[in-house]
Amino acid sequence: MSSSALPRDSFHSRIGFVLAAAGSAIGLGNIWGFPTQAANNGGGAFLFVYLIVTLLLALPALYAEVYIGNQAQKNPVSALAEACGNGSKRLGRNAGIIGLVGAIMMLSFYTIVAGWMLAHALSALTALMGFTDISNWLSTSSTLRNLVFTPVFIVLGAGIIHQGVHGGIERWSSRLMPMLLLMLIGLIVYILQLEGAQAGLALYLIPDFAQVSDPKLIISAMGQAFFSLSIGVGGMMVYGSYMKKGQDLGKLVVSIAALDTFIAFLAGLLIIPALFVAQHAGQEVFTNGHLIGEGQLIFQILPSLFATMGMGGLLVSFSFFTLLSIAALTSTISSTEVPVAYLVEDKNMNRKGATWLISAVVLVASMLLIAFFDLLFGLVIQMLTTILQPLMSLFYFIVVGWIWQRGNKLTDVAQLQENTKLRFFGFYLRYICPILLIIVFINVAF
Ligand code: PHE
Question: What is the pLDDT of residue 394?
């Protein structure tokens, strides 16, 4: 049956939108990526730059993305086509498709990493039940483990998504998000009582201002901020489109960014002291100021740290990796929603069919990544976060600031003249944001 005759599904409340969007933003990027990057880039200095970059660049980009979706009330492909007007409709549509491909790229590696989280959570659970062999298998990285847990995670996500916007996404996000916050705080309280934690706390909270102007640090912080706020693949645009028009988007976007940044901050407050606790207990954590194992930090250091806590440690391990799986799930949902909304609205598919079709595509893509892991895994992450996401953000700035005319308050001369705040913001989005982003590109290229 064609779904175009049905009214569009939507969030039933503003808080529903905020929770879902925060659920999209808060994920492996915050809890896994951010602390790793912070620990590798001087702790406090990274935190300091990250906060500034989020405020100056990521926040306006998030606004632009949500604004386009909210005004158009359409999926990202149609929304961008509409915003580009008759003259550049094709350009907008193609950009939307590129974003959609970005969403699938994101899913192809994200579901693999999320599968690792799931496996580690189950590893703790099976250890608690006394199945040592199974537990060891679950906590050891292997192709077979990937082949099992990536599909499990994809099916979990699809199961929620096909229930629709209100029944699925809104309901689950509002349940899972507060749980996540509580678990994180509980773990921080626990870790901070352990010996060695104070040194980690100091590294994290006291910035070394000599490092703040390091271009490498600034670029890492910027990439991290874009990924963390889910900007540039259309996930936030599609959520914006599920909210009724005429909301005060500025406030909503600020609260999402604040929640996301707060969770990243808390994750740092947990992981960095935890590293120092591990070091205090005699483990080698840093070599030459760099974390050993880089991105493998959580999988190498934390399980052994938890293991030193005895049976209680298994519980901590279980809750920690469950927390990460939950965070990954709500992020996965928003990325999947991008192609699903496109197929439902523009290609007249039903929601269930579209969800399973996209899940099948993601499954094939992630299996390819698993098969050619060394070649593809890092490459896809890098292409997405350092090229595709920033380029799409630049495109959003240009659309909102320059191309989109009809119904856009940011290019409406009369409205801008009346409203000083809007005029300032319009100027900022039109000129400063693209220039800042181009500077970053130049820095990345050279
Ligand atoms: N923001 C998510 C995280 O921090 C990742 C994400 C990127 C989600 C892009 C959706 C789109 O883990």
Answer: 93
